[in-house]
Every structure is written in structure tokens, then in C-alpha cells.
Amino acid sequence: MSNVPVRVTVNGREHELEVEPRLLLVHLLRDRLGLTGTHVGCDTSNCGACTVLIDGESAKSCTVLAAQADGAEIKTIEGYAEANGKLHPIQQAFWEEHGLQCGFCTPGMIMTAVDLLSRNPDPTDDEIRDGLEGNLCRCTGYQNIVRAVQQAAAEMNPTGAQA
Ligand code: FES
Ligand code: FES
Fold first, then answer.
1. How far apart are alpha carbons 92 and 115 in whole angstroms?
2. How far apart are CA 129 and CA 149, in angstroms?
3. Which atom of ligand 2 is nearest to the CA of 102?
């Protein structure tokens, strides 16, 4: 089957590529654009390691064809790196609350947390657990991850105001 053109904006940079129709978005990001912060944990839409933001909403990029993302604005974990090394408040909170061990699930957790806090800036414990239920961690037991998201919420929304 012949290749199809895809135009995506990733972390603010526009890319025009020709891709195989069967190429998954996660492979476009990792293999074609070199953005290996987005991980592949299962390839079957279970683990959430491949989560990115597509037009502002979190999505498992192993469930999306690259061709389906044509015209989309995509954000990956690399989009949060600042040249001076400053971390995004959610990254900082994961660091301070020990929300990671091996780190494999962390980029996907952070992308999901970004989406969650953009829709619900002051989530309860249960809402955080619900929001992260599509992301699996095999190391931490989740308690520290939930604490990290709570800390990030407090940092990003000090008045506790709802959206
Ligand atoms: S690699 Fe996409 S959900 Fe696991
Ligand atoms: S920190 Fe190892 S899988 Fe989550």
C-alpha cells in the first residue's frame, strides 16, 4: 500500500512526513521524530506508557494511526523540558514525592496528569486514582504517584479553585 502524507505539530514544531498507512502514532513519534520519551509498554492499549496529548487531550498513542493524527497538535513529555533544566510542576512533584522508580511509566503518567489537572485543577484522591486508572506502574504502588499529583495540583492552583 502506498504511503500517505501526514502533517503534525509536535511540541510546537511542524512536521510533514510520508508514512505507511498502518504506522502507529507512537512509532511516528519514536522512530521517525526521535522522541523516545514516549514509551511502548504493551502495544495493546493497556499500560498507558505511550500517552501523549492530542489537541490537548490525553490519548494512548499506540491506539492511534499516524494518519489519523493528520493536522493535530501533539504534545509529548519532551515538550515540558526547558532549556535551563527547570521541570514542569508535575515533573517536580513526581521527583519530590518519589512518584517513580524505574521511570518507564512516568512520561505517560505525567501526560495523563497534565490532562487531568487541566480539566480538574483540584482533584480529590479518588478523582486522581480514577484519572490515572489507564496508566499502569509496576514499581511504585501508586501512593506516591497520587501524592505527586496532589502536590502538583496545590502548586499549580494554590487557591484550590475549580475550573
Ligand atoms: S504501549 Fe500504548 S497503552 Fe501500552
Ligand atoms: S516507575 Fe517503574 S513502571 Fe512505574
1. 16
2. 10
3. 2
Taking the C-alpha atoms of residue 89 and residue 153, their distance in angstroms, rounded to an integer, is 9
Site to probe by mutation for ligand 1, drawn from 24, 31, 38, 44 as the one with most ligand atoms within 8 Å of Cβ, is: 44
Nearest CA to ligand 1 atom 3: 45
In this structure, the strands spanning 13-19 and 4-10 are antiparallel
Distance CA(31)–CA(160), nearest Å, equals 40
Of ligand 2's listed atoms, the one at least distance from the Cα of 99 is: 1
121 lines ligand 1 (CB under 6 A): no
What the block records as the C-alpha cell of 94 is 513526581
Using alpha carbons only, give the angle 110, 64, 53 rounded to the nearest 5 degrees.
Answer: 30
Q: Model-level pTM?
A: 0.95
E strand segments, the chain: 4-10, 13-19, 51-54, 57-60, 73-75
What pLDDT shows up at residue 162? 66
Give the residue among 88, 97, 94, 103 at the shortest CA–CA distance from 137. 103
CA atoms of 141 and 81, how far apart (whole Å): 26
Q: What is the pLDDT of residues 99-115, one digit of tens each?
A: 999 999 999 999 999 99
